[in-house]
Amino acid sequence: MGWTSSGIEKATDKREVLSCWDDTYDSLPNRTSDSNSLRFLGSFSSEAEAKKAINNYDISGMAYAEVNTGKESAKLRDAKELLSKESSKLKSFKISSSVYNSHNGKTIGCTDCGSSFPRDYFYKNDSYNYSEFDEFVDGKYLNTCPICGHDLRSKTTFERIEGYRKNIQKYTDRVNSLMETEKAKPYYLYKIHAYLG
After folding, report:
1. Is 145 exposed, middle or buried (0-12, 13-18, 19+ CB in 10 A)?
2. Model confidence over 6-34: pLDDT tens digits?
3. Residue 62 contacts by C-beta under 8 Å, 6 or more apart in sequence?
4. N- to C-terminal Cα distance for the chain?
C-alpha cells in the first residue's frame, strides 16, 4: 500500500493533536511502535521554523511541534519598567536613610533610652547587600540602638519606605495581571507521514 502523508495541520490544543494521532494510528493496518510513532519536535518561536522541522522529519508516524510567538505589549513593558524603577528607588532610599548616612554629627542618640554613641559605631551604608532585618553589618550596627535595640530611623523614613512598598505591590499586581491576560497561548502544527503496509 505504501506511504501516506498529510499536509501540515494546525491545532489549538495538544489534546487535539494526540486525539488525531490516536484516530490515525487505530486506522493503520501496520500498527507497530517501530513503523509508526508519535514524535514531538520541540517548541519554536515562529511558525516557519516549526514547519521546517516537521517537513524535515520523514520517519513514519506523526510529527508535531509547539509554536509560541508571544510578545510583551507596551503596557506590560511599561509596568515592568515602573516596578523596576520603584524597586531601585526603595533600595537607594534605604541606603541614604540608614542611620550613619542620615546623620552628620559625631554622635547619634537614641530617643527611646537616651543613650548616645559615636557615629562610627554604625555601618557606613554604601550598598544594599544585606538583609533588611540584619542588626549588624561588618561588625557595626546598622539602624538599631546598641543598648535597647530601638530602630533609630525617623517616622518620616518609615512612612516613605512604606510608600515605596505600596507602589511596588501595586506595580507587581499590575505586571502579574497583564502577564495573565496577555499570556500567549501556544498552538501546535502536526503532519502525518505513515506507512500503510
Report:
1. buried
2. 678 888 888 888 887 777 665 555 544 44
3. 17, 20, 21, 24, 37, 38, 39, 190, 191, 192, 193, 194
4. 5
Q: What is residue 155's DSSP assignment? A: H
The cell numbers describing 43, all together, are 517548541
Q: What is the dihedral of CA 24, 27, 32, 35, to 10 degrees?
A: -60
Task: Look at residue 122 in the predicted model and tell me its pLDDT.
Answer: 87
Amino acid at 110: C
Query: What is the spatial distance between Cα 161 and Cα 73, in angstroms, rounded to a whole number?
Result: 30
What phi and psi, each to the nearest 5 degrees, are found at residue 77?
-60, -40
Q: How far apart are CA 42 and CA 60, in angstroms?
A: 18
From residue 102, alpha-carbon distances to 93, 107, 110 in Å are: 10, 12, 14
Tell me the pTM: 0.55
Distance separating alpha carbons of residues 75 and 93, to the nearest angstrom: 27
pLDDT of residue 162: 92
In contact, 145 and 115? CB cutoff 8 Å: yes
Chain segment 85-128, per-residue pLDDT in tens: 998 898 888 888 888 888 888 999 998 999 999 998 888 866 65
How does DSSP classify residue 183?
P
